Amino acid sequence: MKSKRNPPEHIFSGMAVGTGVAIGVVHRHDSRASVHVREVRVSAAKVRSEQHRLLEAAARAASRIETLQTEAKRMSGAAGEELGYLLDAYHQMLSGSRLIRGVQKRIATDNINAEAAVMKEIGLMAEAFATMDDHYLAARVDDIREVGRRLVEALTGKKVRALAGLPRNAVIVADELSPADTASLDPQNVAGLVTLVGGVESHTAIVARSLGLPAVVAEDDILTHTRNGQPIIVDGIRGLVIVQPTARTLAEYRRRKAELQREQKSLLKLTSVPAVTKDGVAIKLMANIELPGEIETVLAAGAEGVGLFRSEFMFMNRATLPSEEEQYAALSNVVRQMGGKPVTIRTLDVGADKLGAALGMKPGPNPALGLRAIRFSLSKKKIFLTQLSAILRASAHGPVRILLPMVSTVDEIREVRKILARLTARLKRRGEKLSDPLPQLGVMIEIPGAALAADALAAESDFFAIGTNDLTQYTLAIDRTDEQVAYLYNPLHPAVLRLIQFTAEAAAAARIPVSICGEIAGDHRLTPLLLGFGISELSMAATNLPRVKKRILSLNLSAISGRVRRITAESDPARLKSLVAELSG
Ligand code: PEP
Ligand code: MG
To answer: Which of the listed residues 73, 141, 190, 471 has the most CB atoms within 10 Å of its CB?
Structure first.
């Protein structure tokens, strides 16, 4: 508990991962409530029938997953797609997998009932996964446990836990929400989400954002401080959760909620208004996407194109790598849906926290500085060529740009250009239709060395995209996934701002376009500063785009140039912060 002004009102702080404000009632959901099963000895004569009972239960659990898969298909955008991938994985685990074979064997070797064998096998698998130092695999442990729970439910015929029967306006307060739980949520009844674990990139956060739900990852064990049915407020803007709010707090939040709704309505009117400053400077506003299913939202927000398609998300939550045909189908669909607006496809950005083990990468001594992103692609040519072939073929359906992540030297760009030339010739021989001219090739500027050598890189690139998330991490030596040093993570540090400015100047000198696609691009308070640097292209989560546009429409760039100059000359972080705050207005 952080503070306790009025006795019954409890305010918890946390991290805002969804947007908006929710006012509702607590619905607790504790997935830590462990599954208790009784171990019963099974005689050798009964082993076969126990194994048969297991297979029947697995079939029932798989058929329940099939129902959820149908429900997930009805969900729009990234949420449905993300859940679809996960449910496919659950289905696979329940159908003749290593897990089911392992449980069958254990029934025979340990002479125990199926329920106990499931729990033992799940425990061993989870242990083995947990010892691997990999975020992606750590998340898979929860999926394995979820499949175990479902198997036990099917065996016993009893619900182990459920998110059914939600009251209207339910705010789900959970230690964590599994994707399958989320699939069974009725969005009509859910007002908001509060969880104890999960970062801004967690499944819960992705789903919350695409469903437009306010969500907070709380710092304290809020589950032990709440009861079902208690009034609760989720402030997904400031990252606050207020349990048992006073009448005054409630009135204040009702007012804010109404204000947000009014603002949202007026922002929608800007969808087709061009983003031009008061003094006539046109700004290109693009969207970042993770999954092909997000295009509907991108178009609804009025984006002029996709400025960053993080293609690695197409490789996640699946047992095998997507084939060229599968990637081509997904990418060409995105390109067609965008109806002539450009789509910037970033090649695989894996390594460090993203997907490493799943692609058979050996974790190096320092994964954030190791074989990741473009370095990985250049070392695994088969995976890279498959992806590039799919991208080149998709370019026949509309304007496509290729973006390379984590470039640190001109040699990498030159090598990719050679690969592209060979690949183009090969695809033409195969009779494939390609775009003419071929897609432009750009690089992410997200390593300080790349920013400082931006003039050399600009000579080899068709465009730049500044990745301020990683640029901040590498400039300040702050692991962006480490909560312990999060207080030092500051994209407005003078060093980071200077690198952005240096890159923008190098791009202008080489006459190539430059955009910012890190999180700061979507922060409307920083729009004046970024535009003041001469940046005229911003790419962000589609939900942030209307608010950034509103800021642009009210801005007079020539009037702020002096203040921007003062900011770029400032080296004291505290003074710089107050100058930026002043400029933000
Ligand atoms: C960045 O680093 O700023 C970026 C946009 O890429 P990602 O967040 O995917 O690393
Ligand atoms: Mg990056």
So the answer is: 471
Q: State the distance from the centre of ligand 1 to the C-alpha of 516, rounded, in angstroms.
A: 10
**Atom of ligand 1 minimally distant from the CA of 349:** 9
Is it the case that residue 181 has pLDDT exceeding 70?
A: no
Choose which residue among 446, 476, 503 to substitute to test ligand 1 binding: the one with the highest number of ligand atoms within 8 A of its C-beta. 446
- Residues in contact with ligand 1 by the CB-under-6-Å rule are 308, 310, 349, 446, 467-470, 517-518
Domain 3-31+163-266: which CATH number of 3.10.310.10, 3.40.50.970, 3.50.30.10, 2.40.10.220? 3.50.30.10
The closest-lying atom of ligand 1 relative to the alpha carbon of residue 308 is: 5
CA of 324 to the centre of ligand 1 (A): 24
User: Considering only CA atoms, which residue is closest to atom 3 of ligand 1?
Assistant: 467
Class of domain 278-584: alpha beta
**What pTM did the predictor assign?**
0.70
- CA–CA separation, 266 and 270 (whole Å): 7
Q: Is the pLDDT of residue 353 over 80?
A: no
Largest distance between two CA atoms of the chain: 87
Whether 517 is catalytic: yes
Q: For 535-563, write each residue's pLDDT tens digit.
A: 999 999 888 899 999 999 999 999 999 99
Mean pLDDT of the chain: 86
Closest atom, ligand 1, to C-alpha of 312: 9
Reading the block at residue 524, the tokens are 């409307």
What are the residue boundaries of the structural domains of the chain, listed by start?
A: 3-31+163-266, 44-156, 278-584
For the chain, give the percent of residues with pLDDT over 70: 86
d(CA 414, CA 97): 44
The CATH topology of domain 44-156 is Enzyme I; Chain A, domain 2 (1.10.274)
Closest atom of ligand 1 to CA, residue 405: 6
Burial category of 232 from C-beta neighbours within 10 Å (exposed 0-12, middle 13-18, buried 19 and up): buried
Q: Ligand 2 centroid vs 446 CA: distance in angstroms?
A: 6
In this prediction, residue 499 has a pLDDT band, given cuts at 50, 70 and 90, of very high
Average pLDDT in the 222-242 region? 91
Q: How far apart (Å, rounded) are the C-alpha atoms in residues 345 and 335?
A: 10
- Could you tell me the distance, in angstroms and rounded to a whole number, from the CA of residue 470 to the centre of ligand 2? 5
Maximum mean pLDDT: which of 135-149, 324-338, 564-578: 324-338
Please tell me the distance from the alpha carbon of residue 497 to that of residue 495, in angstroms, as a whole number. 6
Of the candidates 460, 468, 441, which has an alpha carbon nearest to the alpha carbon of residue 347? 441
E runs forming strands in 491-558: 514-516, 537-541
Q: What distance in Å separates the CA atoms of residue 338 and residue 572, rounded to the nearest whole number?
A: 44
| pLDDT, tens only, 63-72 | 888 888 887 7
Average pLDDT over every residue of 37-62: 90
CA of 348 to the centre of ligand 2 (A): 11
Q: pLDDT at residue 180 above 70?
A: no
**Could you say which of 10, 203, 397, 493 is catalytic?**
203
Nearest CA to ligand 1 atom 1: 467
User: Does the annotation mark 10 as catalytic?
Assistant: no
Query: From the candidates 27, 29, 91, 517, which is the catalytic residue?
Result: 517
Q: Residue 293 corresponds to which tokens in the numbers above?
A: 């299913």
